[in-house]
Amino acid sequence: MLVEEVMTTDLVTCDVDAAVRDATELMLQNRVGSVVVTDDGTPAGILTESDVLRAGYATDDPLSAIPVRKAASAPLVTVRPSATLRTATERMRSEGVKKLVVVDGMTPEGIVTTQDIVDNYAGIRKEVRDLATDATGWSERSDRLRD
User: Fold this and answer.
1) Does residue 75 have a cis bond before it (omega within 30 degrees)?
2) pLDDT of residue 33
3) Is the Cβ–Cβ distance between 46 and 113 less than 8 Å?
4) Are 109 and 103 in contact (CB under 8 A)?
5) The CBS domain covers which part of the protein (predicted)?
6) Which of 33, 36, 54, 72 could anchor a disulfide with 47, C-beta 3.0 to 4.6 Å?
7) What is the rounded distance in angstroms from the CA atom of residue 97 to the CA atom of residue 78?
8) Residues 19, 52: contact at Cβ < 8 Å?
9) Helices (DSSP H) in 101-147: which residue ranges?
10) What is the C-alpha end-to-end distance of the chain, expressed in Å?
């Protein structure tokens, strides 16, 4: 199964110069757990719910006084739409993130999250089962040819 089959294509973005409060408002309005941070339209990072909590706690300032550029996670961890979900999950694990921005070159196409992978677990299992069945079929056919 490929990333492009499960990713969310409706990206919520905010400018790197916005306040964390404004970015949080976008998250709440759109019912998402993160916003992609852009700098002149180019993806530059991601601000997650955890980043908001960490910034508020660490600075003890109101969210309206904290710039997104100080709170966002960067550099942005990305994946291509043609990558497999296995590749995406390995990348999430190795980078210690729960969300990957899906990019084609420098153009953001969507986002894939651990929740997207969990939601598609049944399809992933079916694909693995089908691949295993195909492999067994090939193996049995080659055994018959050798006999």
Assistant:
1) yes
2) 93
3) no
4) yes
5) 7-63, 72-131
6) 72
7) 10
8) no
9) 114-119, 121-146
10) 36
CA–CA distance, 15 with 42 (Å, rounded to integer): 9
Would you list the domain boundaries of the chain?
A: 3-144
17 - beta bridge partners?
none
The sign one gets for the Cα dihedral 35, 37, 40, 43 is negative
- Residue position matching structure tokens 């296995």: 86
In this structure, the chain runs to a length of 147
Contact in structure between 63 and 56 (CB atoms under 8 Å): yes
pLDDT at position 146: 55
Sign of the Cα torsion 100, 22, 119, 107 reads: negative
Average pLDDT for runs of 10 along the chain of length 147: 92 95 97 93 91 96 96 93 92 94 88 90 76 64 53
Token pair of 117, please? 């992978």
Alpha-carbon distances, residue 88 vs 81, 98, 106 (angstroms): 10, 10, 18
pTM above 0.90, yes or no: no
Q: Which residues of 5-32 are buried (b: 16+ CB within 10 A; e: fewer)?
A: ebbeeebbbbbbebbbeebbebbeeeeb
